[in-house]
Amino acid sequence: MISFKFSSKDEEKSAIEKLYIKTNKVLYGYAYDILKDKGLAEDAVHEAFIRLEKNLDKIDDPDSRRTFNYLITIVENISKTMYVKRSREFASELDDYSENKEDNFESADEVLVKREEYALLHEAIDNLDEKYRKAMTLLFFYGMKEKEIAEELGISISNVGVRIHRAKIKIKEYIEGKEAGDK
User: Each residue of 137-177: pLDDT tens digit?
Assistant: First the structure.
């Protein structure tokens, strides 16, 4: 592979910034799909760009599909490593609760309930029709406001409001159906 050479540090910085602006939302979504945590997904994307900056000699053109695929691979590897680490930490937290006094069992139960509720919410969103899922993903996972969602999806703000309202109803029905099935 022929390395892409920058004529100055400013040009190098500018290329990385443009690449970040162009790809960060997609990379974040990819990391989030693995980690299911906003903060960790953001950390994974930032770490990917730190690694990219250290390995600029491995890319031939910052705007190429190959560079994008390289970034996806980095984000995937970082995210999987973070996921495994977080899982081990969670298991360790549960062990700590179990080894301590009986009153800590409630705390361990609370941790499990929160994780189960979050997983159920994520499952409910994943089961929505695409137009509702996109709106809820941008609202819930990306923290976008209705105006930003409207711009991202190319629809009116009132349409975003309708989609979010309908999605919330469908999520509630899904969760109630799951809970009814557990009884």
Answer: 888 777 778 998 898 889 999 999 999 999 989 988 888 88
Q: Is the dihedral of CA 67, 10, 23, 121 positive or negative?
A: positive
Please state, in angstroms and rounded to a whole number, the distance separating the CA atoms of residues 86 and 55: 27
Sign of CA dihedral 105, 107, 113, 118: negative
Those residues whose C-beta lies under 8 Å from the C-beta of residue 19, and which sit 6 or more positions away, are: 49, 52, 62, 63, 67, 71
SS (H, E, C) 34-51: HHCCHHHHHHHHHHHHHH
Closest CA to 38 of 29, 47, 46: 29
**How many Cβ atoms are within 10 Å of 34's Cβ, its own excluded?**
17
Indicate if the pLDDT at residue 29 is higher than 60.
Answer: yes
